[in-house]
Amino acid sequence: MDRTDLLEVATEAARLGGAILQDWAGRFTPREKSPANLVTEADLASEKAIFELISSKFPDHRFLGEEGLLRNEGNSPYRWIIDPLDGTSNYVHKFPYYAVSIGLECDGELIVGVIYDPNRDEMFTAIQGEGAQLNGQKIEVSVIDELSSAMCMASLPIKASRDNKAVRRFLDVLEAAQTVQRTGSAALNLCAVACGRIESFWSTSLKPWDMAAGVLIVREGGGKVTTCEDQEFDVNVPNMLASNGTSLHAEISARLQYAE
């Protein structure tokens, strides 16, 4: 199957999902007593539209999505991994840092990745072996190799206590890096690594739909993705360290392990 065609469908689906999120965002304000129901409806509406568009083109493909989407029957080697709203808390608070993420596997290998930021109209795309792009222009990771000059991102579990391992890891890298941020969107953090805006992002609490598309985009941007222990990455396991692939990677990995 032509991967350019697959990417084109993924891009169309991501734009559709993003438009739905923006439409729903105009229906509530952060001051509402409980915008959660509306946000759930937005999430579900985005996922439904994405699924219907992709499945209309590829009816035999399998699917995995955040909002309960699961189609695993059949023998197709293709599996779409979809997050219709990555950055839900940001979306609730109208903090414009959220995205639609669509990854595609073939025989368990990531081959297409698309992440769309509807607030900035930024479309990050990648095809395995063909590089990564932002709005059609090639992107690459940064070349910074000193942790003291590096900007890093981290995901922390919701309401993590101060003695949580993830918090200790955050603080340990914070002591050495120029800065460490927590932003609330794994997909956009991975895109930031891929296009050189930041040097590293790690997490041990993500799901496959949080990582799939972004991992491929980082790799195709020239970066490196492993576990936090610098071992082989598995999208089905919540353990990921992404970086620009310089000596920073091993240094951050060592600090993450030391913090345990």
UniProtKB/TrEMBL annotation:
<dbReference type="Pfam" id="PF00459">
    <property type="entry name" value="Inositol_P"/>
</dbReference>
<dbReference type="GO" id="GO:0046872">
    <property type="term" value="F:metal ion binding"/>
</dbReference>
<keyword id="KW-0378">Hydrolase</keyword>
<feature type="binding site">
    <location>
        <position position="86"/>
    </location>
    <ligand>
        <name>Mg(2+)</name>
    </ligand>
</feature>
<feature type="binding site">
    <location>
        <position position="85"/>
    </location>
    <ligand>
        <name>Mg(2+)</name>
    </ligand>
</feature>
<feature type="binding site">
    <location>
        <position position="66"/>
    </location>
    <ligand>
        <name>Mg(2+)</name>
    </ligand>
</feature>
<feature type="binding site">
    <location>
        <position position="210"/>
    </location>
    <ligand>
        <name>Mg(2+)</name>
    </ligand>
</feature>
<protein>
    <recommendedName>
        <fullName>Inositol-1-monophosphatase</fullName>
        <ecNumber>3.1.3.25</ecNumber>
    </recommendedName>
</protein>
<dbReference type="InterPro" id="IPR020550">
    <property type="entry name" value="Inositol_monophosphatase_CS"/>
</dbReference>
<dbReference type="InterPro" id="IPR020583">
    <property type="entry name" value="Inositol_monoP_metal-BS"/>
</dbReference>
<dbReference type="InterPro" id="IPR000760">
    <property type="entry name" value="Inositol_monophosphatase-like"/>
</dbReference>
<keyword id="KW-0460">Magnesium</keyword>
<dbReference type="GO" id="GO:0046854">
    <property type="term" value="P:phosphatidylinositol phosphate biosynthetic process"/>
</dbReference>
<feature type="binding site">
    <location>
        <position position="83"/>
    </location>
    <ligand>
        <name>Mg(2+)</name>
    </ligand>
</feature>
<dbReference type="InterPro" id="IPR033942">
    <property type="entry name" value="IMPase"/>
</dbReference>
<dbReference type="GO" id="GO:0007165">
    <property type="term" value="P:signal transduction"/>
</dbReference>
<dbReference type="GO" id="GO:0006020">
    <property type="term" value="P:inositol metabolic process"/>
</dbReference>
<keyword id="KW-0479">Metal-binding</keyword>
<dbReference type="GO" id="GO:0008934">
    <property type="term" value="F:inositol monophosphate 1-phosphatase activity"/>
</dbReference>
<comment type="similarity">
    <text>Belongs to the inositol monophosphatase superfamily.</text>
</comment>
